[in-house]
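Input chain follows. Return structure tokens only.
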Amino acid sequence: MSLAIVHSRAQVGVEAPAVTVEAHLANGLPSMALVGLPETAVKESKDRVRSAILNSGFEFPTRRITLNLAPADLPKDGGRFDLAIALGVLAASGQVPAASLDNLECLGELALSGAVRPVQGVLPAALAARAAGRTLVVPSANAEEACLASGLSVLAIEHLLQLAAHLNGHTPLAPYQASGLLRTCTPYPDLAEVQGQLAAKRALLIAASGGHNLLFTGPPGTGKTLLASRLPGLLPPLDEEEALQVAAIHSVASQAPLTSWPQRPFRQPHHSASGPALVGGGSRPQPGEITLAHQGVLFLDELPEFDRKVLEVLREPLESGQIVIARARDKVRFPARFQLVAAMNPCPCGYLGDPSGRCRCSTEQIQRYRGKLSGPLLDRIDLHLTVARESTALHADPESGQNSASVAAEVANARQRQMRRQGCANAFLDLPGLRQHCPLQADDQRWLESACERLNLSLRAAHRLLKVARTLADLQELEHISRAHLAEALQYRPAAG
């Protein structure tokens, strides 16, 4: 047969669109043409495939070979199509049966010896192959990752010869059995290790229960970073769909190998990070820190030290839960449903309001320092808390009932109420959901409106305040929001201007 078709998958963001590799042999001068909008790395696959076929003991056809990667308008890059191209050439030349390729999808880069090397973004391709009902052929190094897509039949190979022997019926390959190496979770730091700071621990409980954003302000050494690092351990475990989303993101990110699953990510970029480092970018768009923090926590320490333009790029994903990276010929959409936790000092020296009286910052310096943060960004942070200095006793007993396990149980109970009622955490309620699930008594409504007027709060801030009050009611297992809940929520919202 002079025509063969092999199925494969491209990588576009965190998606894996189908690519059909068509190989055709025709009479004429020996040549090999590759069409279908291939990038440079794909064009170079012609030489890799030729050497791999010859060094594996097969005959390379001395005919006019045309290889088409369809659809033609989808850019293809990387070496992930090498294995599919080699199979297409072998099938078109009759060295492997073409009919055996109908139910397979192939990913893998070929070495000149015919060995199969691992590629990035295998998990999104595995999920797509499972949905298509096909068996996925991957390099052995990627097999464990592909098996995270439960119910998928995976064939793991180390050399082109193995796959050819399987297709020819000489040495059939058994489906790969996952060892569970990627399903190992490192325990999160325990909240009991934080000395004192009852108000901050209360804020962490509220933030975890409703998915709210949180800002800690206080002098150096008060435990702001310590508190923030405990938040992932308070959040409910990921369900399978969420865990696969997180794993798929880390699968396509070259700088973030998939090491443990299913854990909520905790990302802590340095304040020198650029805008593309946070939101993602590049000629071949890669996920940034906000996407790597999807379904987890993004912690920004020393918040005013970040470039203001960098912080402003967070405003849209904080509202929409996604980021769209636009390029001249395409748009790539990355998920970014993260929980923001930030920490900052109250002034340039860090000691404004400290009982020691060490602060010597002028009013102008303080205003300039705080002016690095825009009002719209601060408006999107639900809980603002001042963290004061605690006792310097090094061996104080931890507060009873304040370990991560006990707090996580409260959080889980509150989240379950929210999921039963509205299907999402309170922080993600839209305006119709807010009206439906956060009704107030007429007196409480007037009281809240008056308070927002006195504090000069925006409508967005008022809505976020109402969501925090809803979370406080859920923590007490109450159906209705009371004025006490509104009053406590107001304590976490500073006056504007």
